[in-house]
Amino acid sequence: MLNSLNHLTLAVSDLDRSVAFYHELLGLKLHARWDNGAYLTCGELWLCLSVDAQRTPILPQHSDYTHYAFSINEGDFAAFVARLEQAGVVSWKVNKSEGDSWYFLDPDGHKLEAHVGNLAQRLAACREKPYKGMVFFD
């Protein structure tokens, strides 16, 4: 049986640009780099960047809602968002859920989110105002 998410691999078109984005701008820890890839971590999450000649940036309006959310402390949120906005990072969605979130794009158009909160907080908010057809299992 599965017991956790092992790693996430993102296809990138420009390794230098992506390493700068994830390591220097977002602050992920860089562990290894080679001609066509890099390994980074964010907490326990292992992130692999892999150069793929077929990868082209995708505009948010041409992709689905799939995105990758990273946790951030409430006290760090405003400065983080300001830093990304100052660097010209594009936001793709306005937050409408509980907890602060900022939705942004990486250089290849992968949809990302910085989120303050956790599943327990989300479920508590949903118990107060459930989504249409929502059923709880705990």
From TrEMBL:
Listed GO MF terms: dioxygenase activity
Span of domain VOC: 4-117
InterPro entries reported in the protein's UniProt record: Glyas_Bleomycin-R_OHBP_Dase, Glyas_Fos-R_dOase_dom, GlyoxalaseI/FosfomycinResist, VOC_core
Chain segments annotated as coiled-coil in the UniProt record: none
Keywords on record: Dioxygenase, Oxidoreductase
Oxidoreductase listed as a keyword: yes
Top-level taxon of the source organism: Bacteria
NCBIfam families per the UniProt record, alphabetical: Fos_GSH (NF000496), FosA (NF000221)
Protein name: Catechol 2,3-dioxygenase
Native source species: Kosakonia oryzendophytica
